[in-house]
Design goal:
The chain contains 25 helices and two strands. Helix 14 packs antiparallel against helix 15 and helix 18 (287-300) runs antiparallel to helix 19. It has a two-stranded antiparallel ribbon with strand order 1-2. The protein has 421 residues and is mainly alpha-helical.
């Protein structure tokens, strides 16, 4: 007779042929208790096809058994046989003891397929039958979490935590930490992360706690957790970005830059790390290094607008007009409508004494940059030098709305008015 220990041994050894022989033997067995336990074991280890065959055999003997309908529906869903699975679940009758379980299985399916209203309907029906059942209340909280109703979900998890620590193998403390963080209630999340860290120092928990600390303004408390995380798992890529941001927030710019570069060495395809490294290098007064990081970010993603703007700003500040115009010419088709890039283009053309092109770029940037006094001042001076006084006066009026006490431009405007009089 087949023993469960024998099945588990073959599973661990990966002996597929032996497992197939056992399935054939079990299919001829009438020991339904053994078949049921064996099917559960196969399913637990991911041998879904084998588990499904055994459930199918048992249903041949007990076609009306509700629990078997639910169990086989589970394996069919795993195998992508959704229509047949749903037929089995909806075949469980309301008067049967397993009906609530079938409703929960249906709710899980609808939730996973994005049918939130249908899932909620099944959970509410289950609640009317067993309003105090923790599993049902937990499923309702999960639906709320999935729908982005974080505050409401947290309230349900808190009530459940008063009764039990976990449901279905899920820690309620962990769920509360995640839920408060997802809802940007980081201060509320911190005590739950701290409780988790007393018993479970895992990379995910360390990262979640560090993120909550950082987002709530406690960068100094995030740093040692991230150091511990990187020591524990150097390939936890997202830790490098957060660790660098935390160091920068703590005023440790060189450490931040070093962490961003460490992250790039671990994940060379992370464009956001390259942008962060570029900005960090700029802050440290390392323009060549910054340019390299930013160009690499744009190689990874030519449509990365933030990297493009940062690099264009660098070229503008250093008056590298040729490089700036080359960069913007490459991106003009896709990003020609970004006012700031048009302004950079105008400044570069003006420096290169390509005044017609400068005028076109200034005009294009103007509508979107009427709230930037520095741009307006440059534009007004350009117009004056180009002999376009009336246009310059209009621009100066916009500038004085922002800076009414600007002495030079106020005097200019008064002189223009007096001249007209």
């Amino acid at each position: 007779m087949v023993q469960l220990q024998e099945i588990e041994r073959y599973i661990v050894e990966g002996d597929v042929e032996a497992l197939q022989r056992i399935v054939e033997q079990l299919n001829d067995s009438v020991d339904l208790d053994l078949l049921y336990e064996a099917a559960g074991l196969f399913a637990e280890y991911g041998f879904i096809q084998e588990a499904d065959r055994l459930y199918e055999t048992m249903r041949f003997h007990l076609p009306d058994e509700a629990q078997l309908k639910i169990d086989r529906a589970g394996t069919l869903l795993e195998l992508g046989e959704e229509d047949e699975a749903l037929l089995l679940l909806t075949d469980v009758r309301p008067e049967e003891e397993e009906y609530v379980q079938a409703l929960l299985a249906l709710a899980d399916y609808y939730q996973l397929t994005g049918m939130a209203e249908a899932a909620l309907e099944k959970i509410k029906e289950a609640q009317t039958i067993a309003p105090h059942e923790p599993v049902i209340r937990f499923a309702y909280a999960e639906l709320l979490l999935d729908a982005g109703k974080y505050g409401e979900a947290a309230r349900h998890y808190v009530r459940l935590l008063e009764e039990t620590d976990e449901i279905g193998g899920v820690s309620l403390v962990s769920r509360l930490a995640e839920t408060y963080s997802a809802g940007a209630a980081y201060e509320e999340a911190i005590p739950f992360y701290e409780e988790l860290l007393q018993d479970n120092v895992s990379p995910d928990t360390l990262f979640g706690a560090a993120f909550a600390y950082f987002q709530s303004g406690h960068a100094g408390r995030a740093i040692p957790l991230l150091d511990q995380l990187i020591d524990m798992d150097p390939d936890y890529y997202s830790a490098y970005m957060l660790a660098g941001q935390a160091q920068a927030a703590a005023g440790e710019d060189r450490k931040a830059y070093s962490l961003f570069k460490d992250g790039i060495r671990r994940d060379e395809f992370d464009k956001e790390l390259r942008l962060a490294a570029g900005k960090s290098a700029l802050k440290l007064g390392l323009p060549e290094e910054a340019e390299s990081h930013l160009r690499e970010a744009l190689v990874l993603d030519p449509e990365y607008v933030e990297a493009l703007i940062t690099l264009a700003s660098l070229y503008d500040q250093r008056e590298q007009s040729e490089e700036l115009l080359e960069l913007l010419a490459y991106s003009k088709e896709e990003y020609g409508d970004i006012p700031l890039l048009s302004a950079f283009s105008a400044y570069a053309y003006e420096r290169e004494e390509q005044f017609e092109d400068a005028y076109v770029s200034y005009s294009k940037a103007y509508t979107g940059m009427k709230d930037d006094p520095d741009f307006l001042g440059k534009y007004a001076r350009f117009l004056l030098e180009d002999g376009k006084r009336l246009e310059a006066v209009a621009v100066v009026k916009e500038l004085l709305k922002l800076e009414p006490d600007h002495e030079d431009w106020s005097a200019f405007l008064e002189a223009e008015i007096d001249e007209e009089v």
